[in-house]
Amino acid sequence: MKSPIPPAFKFFWLLLASWLAGCQAPVVHVNVLKAPEFDEANQYKVFSVRPFAGSNGAQLARDIDAALAGNRVAGQALVRTIPFDTLGAAARSGKTGAGGADAIVSGEVNESTWSDQAQNREEQECAVHGDKKKLLGLIKECKQYRTVMRYCTQRTARYAVTLRVVDARDQRTVWGKNLAHAVDDTACQHESSKTLKPGSELLGTAYSMVMNDIRTALVATEQSVPVKLMDKADGLSDAGQTTFKGAVAFAKEGRMDRACDLFGQLFEQHKQSVALTYSMGLCQEAHGRLFEATELYKTADALTQAPNALISEALSRVSLHVKDANKVRGATAQTAAPSAAKPSSIQDEALSAAQKAQIQAEHRVALVIGNARYRSIPALRNSVNDALDMEGALKGKGFEVIRVTDGSREQMTQAVRSFELKLKDNSTALIFYAGHGVQARGVNYLIPVDARIQSSADLSTEAIDMDLAIMRRLEDRNPRLSIIILDACRNNPFPASARSAGEQAGLASINAPRGSMVAFSTAPNKTAQDGTGRNGLYTKHLLKELQVPNRKIEDVFKRVRENVMKESANEQTPWENSAMTGDFYFSASR
Predict the structure, then answer these.
(1) What is the pLDDT of the chain when averaged over all its residues?
(2) What is the CATH topology of the domain spanning 34-223?
(3) Model's pTM, two decimal places?
């Protein structure tokens, strides 16, 4: 038998543990968007929940239906449900489509029980006390220990289900998982004040845990995650240190609004402080501004003279959150899949005087970037011409244009920030990019002319992340309408040795946020033609079609698609993702 640990040493270790806990970085919680565990869940918008087999399976189905229907992200419902008992008999049996449902949720309750088990164990207690000896004036010495038997009961509740998702169109099981949780409680005879929790209460807790797993598996959720603060700031005066400590105290109390106000006051005068730069990144992350958070964390990392675990953890965390946010936005976007080229049925409209006046009064801002003269990778023929001609065309349509040609990463980043500052709630925001663009693991990157990329790991520091640098900024500014046009899919310019397994040809599809349109010069994962004349094939036709008055923007891009497919013999198919909620015309007839 092992020798018992003397109480004096137990007390010492308690003091040490308490001191170490006080030295750990304080933790605050921020809300983040988590994508469904089921990767294909975003393609299903309407669920119908079949009663589960097993104990109380009908009640479980009703609760799942309510959880899915009641889930909100930023106040928006991402899915809806159809009660299974309202479907026709053929749909319920799986012989036909599910009466309007995209997917059917079903399964079995495998276990819903609780039980008691004896947990008798031997413990050591002091039998003979010696002379009173003090350690910090608090405890006695024990001269002899004895073994005693403790008679205890452990009550355990377990709830387990098998969950399946079936595609309602072909009755194919597309996802499944076993979910289970056990909850226990223990009471011993010598603990007269302790009573076991009722089995039904423990079972209810296990049930709630399984329900939470089901919800996070099938729909996007907002979750609170712990994030560590830096509680000591570098490079501050005594007064600044006092303000910084006050900000940390507010953050620990959950008052991130006040904490960020104080951090911001200090930051303007102390931008070389690692702790302040990190703290400002945390404030941006807490508000969901992941691009700004990433840039600040990268700046903090550059300011440090040695690796910092908190900064490294923050960069990794935000990268994962960006991927989840991108997946979730896909649940609300509508993709306009192109059809084969055929004679146009577009009919331009006769606009009213009021519509023409509204077009003339719109606040329009455009960012135009064209990169051609790359320093480390093959140059392009038309990109700068595309940007120059697009600038002229847009100015003629009332846009204030910020243009960058052959831009470095710093120049492109600054141009995006300048563009962002000009946007208002009633603005029409347009971004046009012509140049090299690549994707890696579903993330799109625009390539500056000074990029030096040896492997895909360099993309985050050498290139412009489309989602972080552009899409998130547009969502934060929330203009009336956002139009993103990407003629950036000509080829992957990097040698095979610099590519990763996650890279594919062309660009990955970008899900358009609400009130926006994203237009690609070719379909996802495909390449576009550079063109043999002054402009690229896609931009050549776009420049022509946007000059036509009284034509809705959707019809402009339809006509561009028809002409590009015709000229390329169907080898290049322009593509749009749209979540627009109103009409837009580049111009109106006089």
Answers:
(1) 79
(2) Rossmann fold (3.40.50)
(3) 0.45
